[in-house]
Amino acid sequence: MEGTLHDNPAWADAAPTLSVLIPFLRDDPSRLLQALDREAAGLDGAAEVVVLDDGTGDEALTDRLSALAAGLALPIRLDSQTTNLGRARGRNRLAAQARGRWLLFLDSDMLPDRPDFLAAYLGLIAEAAPAVAFGGFSLLQAPRRPEHALHRRMALASDCAPLALRRGAPEKYVYTSNLLVRRDVFETIAFDEAFQGWGWEDVEWAMRVQQRHPILHVDNTATHLGLDPAPAMAAKYEQSAANFARVVAAHLDVVSRYPSYRAARLLKRAPLRAAWRPVLKAIALMERAPLGARELAMRLYRAALYAEAV
Fold this sequence. Notes:
The chain is an alpha/beta fold. It has helices at about 30-35, 60-70, 85-95, 115-130, 150-155, 165-170, 185-190, 200-210, 230-250, 250-255, 260-270, 275-285, 290-305; strands spanning about 5, 20-25, 45-55, 75-80, 100-105, 110, 130-135, 135-140, 180, 215, 220-225. The chain has two domains: about 5-225, Spore Coat Polysaccharide Biosynthesis Protein SpsA, Chain A (Alpha-Beta Complex), CATH 3.90.550.10; about 230-310, no CATH class.
């Protein structure tokens, strides 16, 4: 896990309060870096950025990012890994390289929704010194494309929860896409590296955190630009079933309140799951079908996958 480190000229002498931690795999985070750097002049050195290339293996992309970072005012480190560490292990590595007392996990396909995004977090830190804060998730700047219609609909119904709803279930609405964590909290409660593939490692982390620290929800959203076509969504749900099983085993008292768990329990009693589960997937992937029917089919398909874990 050595990696190759590329530090821009501003990195060496920086003494930041806030470390922005951005993992990516086969994405190009240039647009996000440029958006964050537009705040640099007003931050007085209070923020740095650490970017982890989690095994993309694209030397041309590495060269482009290094050249971009060299011309930016924010202190930036690019850590290029030759092999994929995975979502939990990669974020733990990012945290280990950060120098700020607060860590802001921000996915590479996100884009701040306000021009003072980092300044707002620094203001929150100065005012409240939160253990954990989640800023929110939006689709405000995401382009509308036909192949993303299902993901957009489902994300608007769940991921893009309003502030009041998020505050009612603090651990449930925690995603590493826009997550502020105080360093001492993360040093005692890191992401569980036993999680593999996609899904649930951030919510499970929040379940452990809330046993010892309050989780604050604030209105400082970022747009998720990386909406998926329906086949990619289904593949991620298939990956996530084993992770869901880990959450059920460790946090049944919490997860049993979630609709996804209750739906999985109901479908577990249904006969011939192996026969009708592919039918649900086929309907969800059918672009000519009504969007409402596709959404229902995709949610039931996910629940049928999770039924094996409950």
